[in-house]
Amino acid sequence: MSQTRWVGQAAEVILAALLAVGLFASGGLLPILGVALSLLCPLPLVLVRLRHGPLALALALTFTALALAGSLSAWQPLAFVLEFGLPAILLAEGLRRRSRPELLVMGVAAVLTLGGVAVLVLSAGEWTRPLSAVGQHVEMLVTDMEALTARIAATGEGTAPLAVPIPKLRAFLLMAFPGLFVAGSVLTAAGYVLFLRGLIRRWPAQLGGVAPGSFKWELPEVLVWVFIGSGVLYLTGLPWLRPVGLNGLILLLVLYFLQGLSIAAFLYQRFKLPRFLVTLSVLLLVFQPFLALVVAGLGLFDVWFAFRRLSLPKTPRRT
């Protein structure tokens, strides 16, 4: 029985490593879908850690690095560890210790951001000028977007060309890239945490016996003043203050969006709304960007209205 258990664990470790290699390699093989698939790299590693402990995770990371070194370039294993291996370790330990969702998401997002910047610097070889490597990457992304826009406009038969103010859009993306990059890391980390918590709640015995609580996201009240200050800096129009304000607004809107989602989930459970209404809300959130601003506003105004406390039944007064 013990030998069979070790064989099963070894098979799961190898399978997790192969999945991580395939997901990581898809980022360079598929233009758009591959990038989304590559973001799933930490998930099989985290599941192996939750099921079989830290040694299994170390072995899976080792096998993944060796496979990447043999099939791709020599620096790919280091890029994988920086960009996905470290977040997987932090995710697994945070879930096991039942860390607060805000702290876990922000910690994983910080590691994802730093790892992404390190990979950009590593691939560009700009060790002495890391900001130059990031700038080159942003320029390449904007150029690819311009080429895609021109291709779409050229293939439109009988229709007017797309009226896209490319210079203004380029300037905006270059100014907002730090905030967008960090915001993307925050959303990716939140997706990891929500997905893994759902799996743990569904199969607690198979995933280390961890019993996560509800996803309660509460930001410090002082961030409201940071949000207001960012808006003031952006409205000044000054070239050295406007980018700071814009990036601050982008990041804080994402944080308050997650708080709004936490409030909405609490209200759905509190009033026992039907499941189809939850599904409809998620679909509307995906296809209607304005609704995301409404959810972010719900999270922002929670500082003053405390929606979760207002919805709770009041205890009868004592006479």
Describe this structure in words.
This protein has two domains: 2-213; 221-319, no CATH class. The chain contains 13 helices and no strands. The chain has helices at residues 2-29, 33-38, 42-52, 54-71, 76-96, 101-124, 130-155, 166-202, 223-236, 242-270, 275-287, 289-305, 307-310. The longest helix has 37 residues, at 166-202. The protein is globular.
Note the beta-strand portion: under 5%
Order of helices and strands: HHHHHHHHHHHHH
Radius of gyration: 22 Å
Assembly type of the chains comes to single chain
Helix and strand composition category: mainly alpha
Overview features:
13 helices, 0% strand, 2 domains, 319 residues
